[in-house]
Amino acid sequence: MRDKAFVFDLDGTLFETSAKVLQSDPMVGPDYVEFGDAYKLLNESKPLPLIKLAQEVQKEGYRVFILTARRNIIAPAIKRLLARYGITAEYVFCVGDRGFDVAQYKAEILRELGKEFQTFFYDNEKPNLVLAAQAGARVFQV
Known about the structure:
The chain has one domain: HAD superfamily/HAD-like (Rossmann fold, 3-Layer(aba) Sandwich), CATH 3.40.50.1000. The chain contains five helices and nine strands. The chain has helices spanning 38-44, 51-59, 75-84, 102-113, 126-134; strands spanning 3-8, 15-16, 21-23, 32-33, 46-47, 63-68, 91-94, 117-123, 138-141. A hairpin with an 8-residue loop joins strand 3 and strand 4 (32-33). The longest helix is centred in the last third of the chain and has 12 residues, at 102-113. The two termini are 27 Å apart.
């Protein structure tokens, strides 16, 4: 039997965060968003109840992964935030640098993880969950 991997989205799944889009004008360039603000992530995020599941499965010896639409530049801050709650992510996948099809990118990663692990995916966005299920992950909407 394959090992189990528990894969969690970050915003709205493990943590309630205050980051938002501040500008959305295609004439100006890429959106300016607060999702890359490490200070805001570390100081304004509030854990949601699912954080207890992440803690429990890690204590049981299962691998915990983060799969977020944030950009790679914020991965170190995500690891620090998780560490406050006793969670060490096996890997923090940030798909925000890859463009706009977040659900498809998340599904690709889950498909690859599924080759090695029985994968359980937790997210608060239905489009992410639909494609994740098609990729073979067991999905849970929060």
